[in-house]
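Design job #97: recover the sequence.
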């Protein structure tokens, strides 16, 4: 019997792997520490994934298996004891609580010839580590080393974690509506680059995009318009939850924004008692800003907003609610300040932390509220002095809707042109003179949609610039080097093409 058993064992042949160099892999964002050991792990049909038996880690394992299948066609089982035959190759995704892994999204990735280990103290960290591993799987298999194809992953060790806890982009679904499927594709791309926040700009003068059950006309009336006169659209609460869940599976938080007291023509058109500018309401499909306002002195307006915040907060598991607050040019200053201070109470009552564009710092806001810099640095400095954390979204550096140059097919140019190199080459920690590093929560790159209305147009403006912001937000400053980055970026075309991303092929990068 022993003999028969031995005969059934697959023969363990030594494979002579070609020399690899993990430290030369085109990873974006670049990890904190990389040590190369110059051999390879042969990802193949005999590979299995094993995870800690925690739901979150198990899901990360399934996500990896799905993505390996999508890229290579291999069907890699996850936690399947019937597949535990000898001489398998293993990918272990495990919970571990070492000191290096204290930060919630940190991870370690060890790649040896016969096993890969991803360790983290959180499922979110394991998920980030999985993105690193995905970027290490080559586009083409090696079909000559064995009788079946192997995808050679370079061996070595990566120790990694984020520079900033907040790494976001914003999508304006109000000026033009984007469908659930379009937003999901964007979320997939963001996840690959370790983003953890997607801010959705859900209302503006041109449209209201989220169902509020207690105020149905917001979407019936306010949802039916968009820039240029198209049909608009809106998310039902079920649609929104679907997006929230899809993002959560990728460890991305959706931040809902209702922009107010300005940028509210669509809301006031739906319920005219909200209107505070004294003018006759008409649907608006142009691109001007700063002409609308809620009436900031009416109790009925706040009763309405309490309903809106309550309904949205109840389907938003993340910690934040964004109240907008920008460009309220026709709101009297006193009314604006009163509005922001009252909204902060309403947002807090529904269990959320308030975020607002930098103008909200003119009010007496709590230090727990977050201020998003887009224009006036003095507002950000004032808020930081008061203890608030700042999100950096400066229009001249981080606006995804600015044209690359004068020839750009889409985009605006009021804050200048932002070519791919200048989008990348700035240091968030020194960008605002006098702003302490500890006050910076992170970076967000907003994509306003006056000039774009579908995925290819969105992708033209967001890619490749959003890839650069992911590195500024994740990697240490010493690793943010344009010449090194542009070479790594050039090697991301297989992924971008497989994802059918309509990226802007800037001449500043020697695309492979
Ligand atoms: C300014 S940024 C706005 C938006 C526009 C954007 C266009 C900000 C807080 N307000 O309403 O869409 O410029 O770039």
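Job complete. Output follows.
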């Amino acid at each position: 019997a022993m003999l028969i058993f031995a005969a059934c064992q697959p023969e363990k042949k030594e494979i002579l792997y070609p020399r690899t160099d993990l430290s030369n892999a085109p990873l974006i964002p670049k990890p904190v520490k990389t040590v190369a050991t110059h051999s390879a792990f042969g990802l193949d049909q005999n590979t299995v994934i094993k995870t800690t038996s925690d739901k979150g880690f198990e899901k990360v394992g399934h996500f990896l298996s799905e993505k390996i299948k999508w890229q290579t066609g291999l069907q890699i089982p996850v936690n399947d004891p019937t597949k535990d035959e000898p001489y398998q190759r293993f990918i272990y995704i495990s919970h571990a609580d070492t000191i290096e892994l204290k930060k919630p999204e940190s991870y370690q990735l060890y790649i040896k010839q016969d096993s890969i280990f991803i360790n983290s103290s959180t499922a979110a960290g394991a998920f980030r580590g999985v993105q690193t591993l995905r970027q290490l799987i080559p586009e083409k298999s090696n079909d000559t080393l064995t009788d079946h194809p192997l995808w050679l992953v370079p061996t070595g060790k990566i120790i990694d974690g984020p520079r900033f806890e907040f790494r976001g982009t914003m999508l304006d679904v109000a000026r033009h509506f984007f469908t659930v499927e379009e937003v999901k594709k964007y979320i997939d791309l963001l996840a690959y680059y370790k983003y953890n926040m997607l801010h959705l700009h859900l209302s503006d003068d041109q449209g209201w995009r989220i169902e509020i059950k207690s105020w149905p006309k917001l979407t019936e009336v306010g949802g039916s318009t968009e820039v240029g006169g198209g049909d608009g659209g809106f998310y039902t609460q079920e649609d929104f939850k679907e997006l929230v869940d899809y993002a959560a599976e990728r460890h991305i938080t959706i931040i809902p924004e209702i922009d107010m007291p300005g940028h509210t023509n669509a809301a006031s058109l739906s319920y005219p008692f909200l209107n505070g500018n004294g003018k006759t309401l008409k649907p608006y499909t142009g691109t001007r800003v700063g002409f609308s306002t809620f009436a900031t002195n009416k109790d009925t307006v706040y009763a309405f907003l309490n309903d809106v915040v309550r309904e949205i907060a109840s389907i938003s598991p993340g910690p934040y609610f964004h109240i907008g607050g920008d460009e309220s040019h026709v709101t009297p200053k006193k009314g604006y300040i009163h509005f922001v201070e009252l909204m902060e109470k309403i947002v807090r009552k529904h269990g959320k932390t308030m975020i607002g564009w930098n103008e909200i710092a003119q009010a007496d806001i709590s230090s727990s509220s977050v201020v998003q810099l887009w224009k006036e640095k003095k507002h950000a400095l004032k808020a930081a002095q008061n203890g608030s954390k700042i999100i950096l979204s400066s229009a001249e550096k981080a606006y995804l809707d600015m044209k690359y140059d004068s020839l750009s097919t889409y985009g605006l140019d009021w804050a200048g042109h932002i070519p791919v190199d200048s989008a990348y080459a700035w240091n968030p920690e020194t960008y605002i003179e006098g702003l302490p590093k500890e006050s910076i929560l992170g970076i967000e790159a907003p994509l306003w949609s006056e000039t774009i209305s579908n995925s290819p147009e969105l992708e033209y403006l967001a890619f490749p610039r959003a890839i650069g912001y992911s590195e500024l937000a994740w990697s240490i400053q010493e690793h943010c080097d344009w010449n090194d980055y542009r070479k790594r970026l050039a090697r991301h075309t297989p992924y971008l093409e497989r994802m059918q991303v309509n990226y802007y092929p800037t001449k500043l990068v020697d695309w492979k």
